[in-house]
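Hi support team,

I submitted a single chain yesterday and got back a structure, but I'm not sure I'm reading the token output correctly. Could someone confirm the output below corresponds to the sequence I sent? I've pasted both exactly as they appear in my results page.

Thanks,
R.
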Amino acid sequence: LIAGSGDELFADVTVGGARLVANVSAPRVPWDPRAPHTAGPEGWLGRTGLLPCHYYVHSFASPTRYELRRGRRRTRGTASAHVERNYGDAFPRGWVWAQASAPAPRA
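Hi R., thanks for writing in. Yes, this is the structure output for that exact sequence:
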């Protein structure tokens, strides 16, 4: 289950024997603070119809509380969450996604 409302998101996801429960809260960090609900990384190209797939970054660093469970083991903590939406008619056969995070100004 992944559900969102406004600037908040709740996730309860189980994969194999692991379960992640997370609450992503406001304030979100949009792609462009001047247009937080419309601007994204595609820029003008996203409005041309030339891209078969699209993505929209909802937040770069929302405050998050999480709990990860695997069997009797539980880990709880806080983190910064990156939230984005991917959609479109087709996705490429080869897809590479990399992401990293570090405290400013080291990122």
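A quick pointer for reading it: Strands lie at 2-5, 8-15, 18-24, 53-70, 73-88. Let us know if anything else looks off.

Best,
Support desk
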